[in-house]
Specification:
There is one protein chain. The protein is α/β, with parallel strands linked by helices and 318 residues long. Helices cover 38% and strands 20% of the residues. It has a six-stranded parallel beta sheet with strand order 2-1-5-6-7-8. Helix 7 (195-205) packs parallel to helix 8. The protein is globular and about 65 Å long.
Length: 318
Amino acid sequence: MKVLVLDDGNKGNLIQSLGIAKNFPGSEIEIYKVCLKGPSYSLPGRKGKYKIGSKAVSLFCLFKMWNIGMKVAEIFMEKCKIPEKKFDFVISAGSFLAPFNLLFSKKTGAKSINIMTPAIIPLSYFDIAIIPYHDSLKISTLPSNVIVSFGSLNVIDDEILEREKEKLVEKRGIPDGKKIGILIGGDDQNYRISVNWIEKFIDSLKKIEEDKKFLITTSKRTSKNTVKFLMEKISELENVFYAEFPGISEESHYFGILGISDILIVTEDSINMVSEAITAGKPTLIIGVERKREKRLIFDFTMKNLWRKAMQIISVFL
């Protein structure tokens, strides 16, 4: 089974795509990085910039102008070459890659699998579309090719957890007592993790017995000011066994944290971190953060359904 996985440079998106690809029997996975040149735009409340080229290509895909779309795609693509060899599946995650998924599938004779809801392009255009539960609530009638997920897809399995745990143990050893992994997300259009929130959170951790050991990580979305303040406050905790900060720490043992921890605490803003914690099979506490809007968020329904599904599974063993 030959699988082409598209990579837009977003690690979270790539992990979701690989989470599907690795489960195909005997899969031969090839990763193709899609890099675009040309002007960019930004979105309110979101970090980073997005290439206009993706939107332009999406418009041609919308009207099923595949040949023109391929020519336009190659104008914007830095590699300037759409793969020509045959694949069984093309998999991608995120709106940016959606049009390239369709074009590459047409070119290589593959089935298209798209993760998350794309902008502009209808879900029905893909052979399989996997969308998060909160997106499905906005669609009155789901096309027959749509699969609804209650969390984000990932690559975590027992083998990865054990291997990455051993790497962390080799570096730091194994502490005595219960190990609590703390996964802190960051700001987006709905949530905020501020210095004030961190201060209150650290104060609450101080009340936990000293025989419990903390392993802490932030995300790329955590603001620089918040990370800087957190690094200062961590020094007030005597039971921090390990901490890492993406963009600052030289290496990451994120999966090692999931593997070695007995309990995981995750901020509600990151559905990826929440899903990874649950997939790791550890007791998981999801904690609230500051919200930019007072009204209930559609993501709350996802969390509610994750809880309901968990209760259904637990009830089988009771």
